Amino acid sequence: MNIHKNARLTPAGRLLLVQRIEERGVKPVAAAQAMGLSQRQSYRWLARYRAGGAAALVDRSSAPHRCTHRIGADRVSEIEGLRRQRMSGPAIARQLAMPVSTVGAILRRLGLGKLAALEEKPVIVRYERERPGELIHLDTKKLGRFERIGHRITGDRTGHSNSRGIGWEALHVCIDDASRLAYSEILPDEKKESAVGFLGRALAWLAGHGITVERVMTDNGSAYRSGAFRNAVATAGAKHKRTRPYTPRTNGKAERFIQTSLREWAYARPYATSHERAAALVPWLQHYNTERPHAGLAQRPPLIRLKSPLLGSTEGTVASSRPAFDTDSSDGPGQGSPKATGDSRRAASLRRPDDAVTLAQAGTLCLAP
Q: Between the chain's N and C termini, which has fewer beta carbons within 10 Å?
């Protein structure tokens, strides 16, 4: 409750005032002087108390009790009906010969100010596998290369166009559904060769921590729909599961881990070059896996869940990821980052690829199974 900055009494003080008058027999003049109020105001609080009890002493809305020119319920229902036909506010106003501002105010009061309010929100199904390796999530994120600190950090766009055409690199991520143990690499692109190589190294890294992968979940990117990736998953003895098209929330753990990576690693501090940013990935991953508290694991790092599967909160989750399906022959556009635009950027990306930064090169994380 917001109390006026010049108010002498809160609801508790007002109740004390009327109790002194009603129960103790103190005269309103004396009670008002003791509370620092005018005699007139003390009579007001007393009248409200006698009319509605203690609940009447709370601050009331300043809106009028009655509005003679208020739009009738029938017209409001008509406006709502037209809105549910996905008509815009101005279109409704023209059809009903009403001011646009009035129609907009009614729509906002009904909670229909935006057309998105008409869409039924999907039921959120949270799931968590029981065993490490039962399901891993893979995804990619395209990052731009740079040779100096950009305007996102400095705010200075002077000479910004001189750095264009330097190319792109891709962050490949892998996260275990049960333990949230994560593995990432910076690779030159998101092609099937990079995806297959990353899968093999990720599986080997997880095996080094005692995790045998049973299922691999990805989106419908072209690399993940390729025969080479499908064969690599089958060779590893795992089952490939793909999300429904345009439903990235099914692969939500990978999506969320990418957000965390960007916020706490990629954009956490100004890097002089993209190579310096890539070099900072491995130390951050070690911190994430061994020290950083995870909200989904009762504020414990993934290593603790890996060693003690019973630790961490799994309340409110279900055992499986039903929205995903195994066989998807869809040839539609894949999800993931948009392709680089412009022949010069693609050419630069192929002409000047940075060496892949992997955990194998930088040293395996100290995570004893």
A: N
- Under 8 Å CB-to-CB from 200, ≥6 apart: which residues? 232, 236
| Long-range CB pairs of 204-207, under 8 A, 24+ apart, other chains included | 205/359, 205/360, 205/364, 206/133, 206/136, 206/174, 206/176, 206/181
Q: For residues 315 and 134, give the distance between their C-alpha atoms in angstroms, rounded to a whole number.
A: 19
Compute the distance between CA of residue 369 and CA of residue 365 in angstroms, rounded to an integer.
11
Among the ranges given (59-68, 182-191, 305-314, 345-354), the one the predictor scored with the smallest mean pLDDT = 345-354
Measured between alpha carbons, how far is residue 41 from residues 5, 47, 62, 81, 278 in Å?
Answer: 17, 10, 17, 48, 69
Instruction: Provide the pLDDT for residue 161.
Output: 56
Q: Can you give the pLDDT at residue 154?
A: 73
Percent helix / strand / coil, the chain, rounded to 5: 45, 10, 45
Percent of the chain surpassing pLDDT 90: 58
d(CA 190, CA 198): 10
Instruction: Report domain extents, the chain.
Output: 11-57, 73-117, 136-362
> What sign has the CA pseudo-torsion 358, 360, 365, 369?
positive
Residue 197: strand, helix, or coil: helix
Give pLDDT, residue 350. 41
Query: Looking at this protein, which amino acid is placed at residue 308?
Result: S
**Tens digit of each residue's pLDDT (9 = 90 or more) over 265-296:** 999 888 999 999 999 999 999 999 999 999 88
Q: Parallel, antiparallel, or unpaired: how do β-strands 136-144 and 168-176 relate?
A: antiparallel
136-362: CATH, from 3.40.50.2300, 3.90.1150.10, 3.30.420.10, 3.40.250.10 = 3.30.420.10
Q: Model-level pTM? A: 0.63
- What does each C-alpha distance from 185 to 110, 121, 176, 190, 282 come to in angstroms? 49, 35, 15, 11, 9
DSSP-assigned letter for residue 334: P
For residues 216 and 204, what is the distance between their CA atoms, to the nearest angstrom?
14
132 or 326: whose pLDDT is higher?
132
Check: CB of residue 136 under 8 Å from CB of residue 111.
Answer: no
